[in-house]
Amino acid sequence: MHDLLVIGSGPGGYRAAVLARLRGWDVAIAEQAAWGGTCLNRGCVPKKVWHYTAKLVAHSRDWPARGLKAQMAVDFAAAWQHQEHVVAQVRDSYVDYLKRLGVTRYTGQARFVDARRAEVAGEIVAARHFVIATGSVPRVPAPFQLIPGRVLTTDELFDGPPPTGRKVALVGGGVIGVEFAFILAMLGHEIAWLTPSAPLAHGRFSAPALKLLEGALARYGIAPRQAAVQSVAQTDAGLELGLEDGATVSADWLLLGTGRLPNTGDLGLPAADVALDAQGYVAVNAHLQTSQPHIYAIGDCANPIMNANQALADAAVAAANLVEPGSRVRRAEAVPELVYSALELGRLGLNEEQAEEAGLEPATGFAAFETNPRALGMGEAEGYVRLIAELDSGALLGAEVVGAEAGELIHLVAARYGRADALASLAQSFYNHPALGEEMQNAAETLAAKWGLMEQVFGKADGT
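Below the sequence we write its predicted structure tokens.
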């Protein structure tokens, strides 16, 4: 009998297995498809490879001003092969680390036989504890149906060589839509971007952040068309989409970014008496325990925010509670949220509206990149750092970063978030110069000066 069986090898499952094994537990992990799950094979890893390539293409427009004389040509098939090579490298190192740690690997669908046993490829595996980390699957709403080479989700896009044809219809205004609108356009495609509402309208990024993103996309000729698709017809030339306003859109192929659903089917959950909630997620408490206290669930199958960052954070919470039950709780607001598009957007914590709804009085500090020497030198002077603190105490409530390296800069806040001295730490730290990170310090100082928080941030004049 294993101490722990993890079902699913995505970022959450992988980290839960590693953390438990590092504590000396006998750990096994089961995976029915490619090791590494969606994130590694058809999600955040290959997508970020392409995003970097897309940024290179975008920056090439500024080469003449830098004294660089070259002409950029994009080979989409070669770009696909490049990301596939990177993914294979990461996957190999991933599997090798599990092997070196001594984590037992089972290949096949895991189904609960009862609350203490699961069947994997015909073998019964018993464990004292379980972590369900089965992720999510793409949502394919009406009127869409998957058609090989014509109508795809991101799963199909990364599972095999990409379709031919430059004209792409992209459906969806969430993170996937916003990111792929930029990526595919920069990688040589003509995009018809169809969204049911304004991009990221249901997220928590501020109106100024979304305005800057809209402008950045527009500079590359990328703009959404708010229209619902009523019909999809396959033609000899490709696809014909009928829109709700009576217009039609022709495309060689279509990419769906219409959200994802928790992957909880065919796990035998009733046999283990593990309950789902009303939305189909595995129901968990604040400690990520299911209706069976020895069975935990993490990531997309149990977390509606559905991204790899949340899965990794969930894994740490579950692993801690496996060793010391009740020692940690999920804090979804403390996990960075990122968008990688024509601009990078990063945030965590509360925004002003949420702070006010919680009965708090938010104070903000702002620092723009437009005068930052490093940003100017990079040609990335668009964007800002915005910090949100509680007016009376100076406690850091949230942060938003827009612009170059937002995905890295947000970690300066994430490492301090939840600490009583978070704002003071940002203000009093020493920084490299010139660096984008200096704007964290500038935003903290601005906030302190503007809202009368100098004493909370820098201490009293007498040093106490």
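The two ends are 57 Å apart (CA to CA).
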